[in-house]
Amino acid sequence: MAGRVIVITSGKGGVGKTTTTANLGAGLAALGRRVCLVDADIGLRNLDVVMGLENRIVYDLVEVVEGHARLRNALIKDKRLEGLFLLPAAQTREKDAVSPEQMRTLCAQLAEEFDYVLVDSPAGIEHGFRNAIAGAHEAIIVTTPEVAAVRDADRIIGLLEANDLPNPRLVINRLRPQMVRRGDMMDIDDVIEILAIDLLGVVPDDEAIIVATNRGEPIVISGRTKSAQAYRNIVRRIEGEDVPFMQLEEDGWVDRLRNLVGIGRKKTRGA
Amino acid sequence: MLEFIGKLFRGEEDASKRVAKERLRLVLVQDRMSLSPQALNAMKEELIAVISKYLEIDEAGPEVSLERDGESVALVATIPVKRVTGLARAGR
Q: What is the Cα–Cα distance from A167 to A160, expressed in whole angstroms?
């Protein structure tokens, strides 16, 4: 049976697409799935460094598509997780070095060998985005609870629909529960209400993710933080499990006081 | 300390997320209703074709546009009619 090809996209840059792709891929592999990560950000490859695999690249996606390298020779095997592979983007080529048809063929080929093919989309809505979504069966949209990111996510939802990828699911990234509590950040309900799509998960803002990225290790593998747990929950939801959303913040004494005097705010629903 | 107490009892009225949500709402109404010039033109052509079955219209005259007023958007079409054609007159 052919595997699932899922594109991870956002419209806006810098919201955490690549980190999300790396963690979801590693998380699925940790559950014993065969996973291939595809970096579709040609010319600005980053998934290799986030995965800590940058020193092992021999061939890249463009060389495979052009027939200069065999697919199996270009795939980099992750040493930490059985069944996890990366197909890196070309770094010195332009985005139009690959066509949507070529991406479709490539994804179909990968789906024969893997349970999951996760395509990391470049920012923007131009050629690179069109390539990234060309071979996908499903889409995950990453956003942060900020005006610009949510606006771009809305645009992407429309474009995905127009390209036969309806019902994308949303990952809200870098949520800061304390700011939500103060009323200085849109909460999960706000974002979902505006975008009107299904929520796949929420990842709290976490310095540990930066530390993990510094080392080239997806935090999902052995992280003990809530962000790592959030990724693990998302992975199980992708697998079809009904995982309850976790509480992102314990009640502090301020909350208890607020509740006592009857001006309590809604708790932050979580990841 | 005063600031802290202020925050404790402050409603959500002046919280910035309200502002964010409101601004998003408005900007999305515009974004979602933005038709490309090509799409608008194609729609105009089709409208003219349909209406021409019943009315003789001035081909050069029709104006079709989306007009916004706050959160609501209306399709406004101005189509000058020359006369009712045979098809419509023959009908009941």
A: 9
